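Minutes, project huddle
Topic: does the predicted pose make sense with flavin-adenine dinucleotide bound?
PN asked that the exact inputs be recorded in the minutes so nobody has to dig through chat later. Recorded below.
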Amino acid sequence: MHTEADVVVIGAGIVGAATALAFTRAGSRVVVLDRTTPNTAGSGTTAGNLHIQTIHARRPGQGPAVDVERLLPLQKATSGLWDSLAASVPDLGLVRCGGFMVAETEDQVRRLHTKHQWERAAGIPTEVLTGVEARRALPLLGPTIEGATWCAWDGFAEPDMAGPALLRRAVAEGAGLHSGTPVTSLHRANGMWEVGTPGGSWHTPVVIDAAGPWMADIAALAGVGLQLTPMSLQMHSLAAAPKTLEVLVQHVGEGMSIKQDRRDRLVLGGGWPAGPFHTVDPAPVLEHSTTGNIAQVARLLPDLSGGQLLEVWTGPVVTTPDEMPVIGEVEGAPGFFVAGGTYSFTFAPLWAELLTALALGGETGPDVSAFSPARLLRLSTQ
Ligand SMILES: Cc1cc2nc3c(=O)[nH]c(=O)nc-3n(C[C@H](O)[C@H](O)[C@H](O)COP(=O)(O)OP(=O)(O)OC[C@H]3O[C@@H](n4cnc5c(N)ncnc54)[C@H](O)[C@@H]3O)c2cc1C
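Predicted holo structure (tokens), as shared on screen:
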């Protein structure tokens, strides 16, 4: 079987789903291929926070810090795109509840003020509060909190809803979806890519590598070596009474996030490590990540820490050596685009818009040349 398409998207996580919808809306004939069931890798296991105010720079155990200031124009752009999608995509599971970023030391409070200046310059509304003001606004906050910033644009999207809703919409608007279809080869001839799978191949001028943790494996099929490392993170949930916590809470100096989802679970994350990345099975759970994440809750929101531990799960992500995202066309492989890395749940709508503009021509929005895959290229693997 040989089929023609304008765009082949490899991977049906949230990046692939949002990208398929954007290209379909731009009039392209889109095919999405996923080796397994859509939304079962990073996008289904994620915390799903929409990080609009400046994020903390390091998850537990992380080496290089995220250059958080440089991400702000992207955070502002993606914030608006999430709202636009919510207006046209049913059941997106978007919750714009607002969020606090808390600080416990003088140095961390200084960081709140610095990031507030950056946010003001980037056009993201935040407010700095003292510890007393923060506790008045959210009495659940504990006595160690010395200050906080509030951002009404923060929030989350329910991970089991957002990606599937985007994919359903893309299919409803004309995209073709092939689950259980692993891409096994990529060849370029006469200005077209041949995307091979066990069941047949697709010919297309544009390939989008949205394979998340497997992005480097897909690039390798195209003869491109990319410095990307998959790893696994760990999440936890605690029981709580309905409507106990109606905002997102994060920490400015540590990887830590907590909010309450539609099933009333308190969902805890922050980039705590799980065991080694497995390509097929979930990574093993690490006991010290569980105790560490729960200890953060006991310190920051003491009244919530007594809730029963309901679930512990792990999920895969892809990391870059500089901990920054990656997006763009790969040099030497015309028509082959990658998008992923740091906070790609938050950035999925933006990656989708940018990829469409880069591939089809058009207004590209924020400058993402610094996040080009060129910095990750290593010697060809073929
Ligand atoms: C525990 C955890 C917490 C996180 N918290 C946040 C957060 O709060 N906010 C945030 O913004 N980000 C967060 N992230 C990161 C974010 O969730 C991911 O960056 C994002 O979901 C990645 O989406 P994706 O579509 O690129 O990849 P994925 O969702 O991982 O999807 C990749 C897809 O590619 C498919 N695939 C792989 N190989 C092939 C092949 N050969 N052929 C066809 N298909 C293939 C897979 O089957 C998979 O469906 C977190 C991640 C984790 C794991």
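Observations noted during the meeting:
- The mean pLDDT is 96.
- The longest helix spans residues 68-88.
No decisions taken; revisit at the next huddle.
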